[in-house]
Write a structure and sequence with these properties.
It is a single chain. By secondary structure, the protein is mostly helical. It has helices spanning 2-26, 44-61, 69-84, 120-123, 129-144, 147-162, 171-184, 188-204, 211-223, 230-234, 238-255; strands at 28-30, 37-39, 96-100, 108-110, 115-119. The strands form 2 sheets. It has a 3-stranded mixed beta sheet with strand order 3-5-4, with helices on both faces. Strands 1-2 form a two-stranded antiparallel ribbon. It is globular. The N and C termini lie far apart (66 Å). The structure holds zinc ion (ZN).
């Protein structure tokens, strides 16, 4: 009895590995919103589910949600403006914007599927609504650019193999296997693409895109000379990004 069960589990396990391999080889698709080719193993529905499932735990790590409803309303308002006036509202993603309580950490991030977060530590340093639009626009860019899903696809194959194909893994196990680092780790290319999309969304929604440069300055200041910048782990090199942001502004002034 026990042996036949084991055999079945082994077969299923092998099937999962074979499936992962097949996905890795064949899952190159063109992102309809960026035009970029990506290898992605999950559907937008799975991205949304993954984001929604991880969101509460993520919020908890930053002290939960910020209690002031007026500030949260401001974040919602700017976020929704950006979504409604851009291609973001044509995507299947469910955008939700969360202001987190943590007053020390300067950070913003997005989970796959549309859960977007900004810490109060960053929020309180922003001087204008346009700068808030810059931060949120950048994060919407990560969602629409499907950056987390791309990172997951990169690591998933090897994890599936190395864990011996956790048989019958439900989404919870997959989440545990992937880990937050993968979900939040963006490459330099991801950052630049998100900056570019952020600038585009800002301009579409009528915000001043130059303010994205101020956001970079704020991040630079927050990093400080000695402090190991929290933001750096997910958003490297504010300095080098400014030049590219200027190029994006020029580009979209001509084409939008
Ligand atoms: Zn980013």
């Amino acid at each position: 009895m026990r042996n036949s069960k084991l055999a079945i589990r082994l077969l299923i396990g092998l099937a999962i590995v074979a499936f992962a391999y097949f996905q890795k080889c064949s899952n190159t698709e063109t992102n309809p919103y960026t035009g970029r080719e990506q290898a992605i193993g999950m559907t937008p529905e799975q991205e949304i589910a993954l984001g929604l499932q991880t969101a509460p735990e993520m919020a908890q790590q930053y002290g939960g949600l910020y209690p002031d409803e007026n500030y949260q309303a401001m974040v919602d308002n700017v976020g929704n403006n950006l979504v409604q006036s851009s291609i973001a509202h044509e995507t299947p993603y469910r955008y939700e914007f969360h202001l987190l309580r943590d007053p020390e950490t300067v950070n913003a991030f997005a989970l796959p599927g549309g859960q977007v977060f900004i810490t109060y530590g960053l929020f309180k340093q922003l001087e204008t609504e346009d700068q808030l639009a810059g931060v949120l626009g950048h994060e919407i860019g990560h969602v629409l650019g499907r950056h987390s899903a791309e990172r997951v696809a990169e690591t998933q194959f090897w994890q599936t193999v190395s864990t011996g194909a956790q048989v019958g893994a439900d989404m919870g196990n997959v989440v545990a296997g992937i880990g937050q680092t993968t979900l939040l780790k963006n490459g330099r290319g991801d950052e630049l693409e998100s900056d570019d999309l952020g600038v585009k969304f800002m301009m579409k929604a009528g915000y001043n895109p130059e303010q994205m440069i101020q956001v970079m300055e704020i991040l630079k200041r927050a990093a400080g000379p000695n402090r190991v910048p929290e933001f750096q782990s997910t958003h490297p090199d504010p300095d080098n990004r400014i030049e590219r942001i200027k190029e994006s502004i020029e580009k979209y002034r001509k084409t939008l």
